[in-house]
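It would be a great kindness if you could assist me with a short task in structural biology. Thank you for your consideration; the sequence and its tokens are set out here.
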Amino acid sequence: MIVLESVGCYFNDETITIYPILADGGWYTNEGVDIADCSDEWWSHLSEGDLEIVSEATNSYYGGGVATNDSAFDVYVSNLNWN
């Protein structure tokens, strides 16, 4: 599990699933959310470093390899309303 501090969750980069971090630092294994189901608001709160981690894992998971400047995921992120 990778900690995404900017959004307060754990990220399983093999299944591209996120889990909220509980007060005791744990997580419920049955309460994960697929990264594709995250809201635009969630995406907009990712730090630059966390976004890079999620982007690379997501592109790799879907067969796109490592993220590039012209990947579909990068286009999606660039089109988010950040304000």
About this structure: The CA atoms of residues 12 and 56 lie 12 Å apart. The chain is about 30% helix and 15% strand. The chain has one domain: 2-78. The first strand starts at residue 2 and ends at 4.
